[in-house]
Amino acid sequence: MRWMCKLLVAYRMAYDEHLADRIHTLLSRQCVEFEEKKMMGGLCFMVDQKMCIGISHDQMMARIDPNIYAACLTREGCHEMNFTGRALKGFVFVDPEAIDEDADLNYWVQLCLEYNPKAKRSKK
Q1: Do the domain assignments include residue 78?
Q2: Nearest to 93 by CA among 116, 115, 64, 118
Q3: What is the pLDDT of residues 101-114, one digit of tens each?
Q4: Residue (of 70, 58, 55, 64) closest to 108 by Cα position
Q5: Is 90 domain-assigned?
Q6: For the segment 24-57, what is each residue's pLDDT rounded down to a tens digit?
Q7: Does residue 7 lie within any of the structural domains?
Q8: What is the full DSSP assignment across the chain?
Q9: Residue 3 falls within a domain, yes or no?
Q10: Whole-prediction pTM value?
Q11: What is the C-alpha separation between 107 and 115, in angstroms, rounded?
């Protein structure tokens, strides 16, 4: 029975709610208009109707300029986003330890916001 309770808690907590609150606060303080959407068991922050920032479990998904993708991968705690067996250029995962400090989280959020106006909308 105990394992079942742990499973239910893990299922309900498909993304780090504390991280979601921190990102929400950062975007709100900068007067960024955004929408939060739950998708694929995580949470996505949409800016200008485009995927900008996401959270999957305890990792942050950052949509960044593909031109700085390789440089970002050299940063501690950053690695390629790979759902299908191949990396999605311009999308990276950032480990919790790499965004523990507010200044570090802000760095990644700013990269996402800087690229957002250039990002293409997904086809509906």
Answers
A1: yes
A2: 64
A3: 999 999 999 999 99
A4: 64
A5: yes
A6: 999 999 999 999 999 878 999 999 999 999 999 9
A7: no
A8: -HHHHHHHHHHH-SB-HHHHHHHHHHHHHTT--EEEEEETTEEEEEETTEEEEEEEBTEEEEE--GGGHHHHHTSTTEEE--SSSS--TTEEEE-GGGGSSHHHHHHHHHHHHHHGGGSPPPP-
A9: no
A10: 0.86
A11: 13
- Which residues, in sequence order, are CB contacts of 49 under 8 Å at separation 6+? 35, 121
Residue 111 sits in a domain of what CATH number?
3.90.1150.30
Q: Model confidence at 1, in pLDDT bands (50, 70, 90)?
A: very low
Determine the Cα–Cα distance for residues 36 and 81; give it in Å rounded to an integer: 20
Distances (CA, A) of 97 to 45, 92, 102, 117: 21, 15, 11, 28
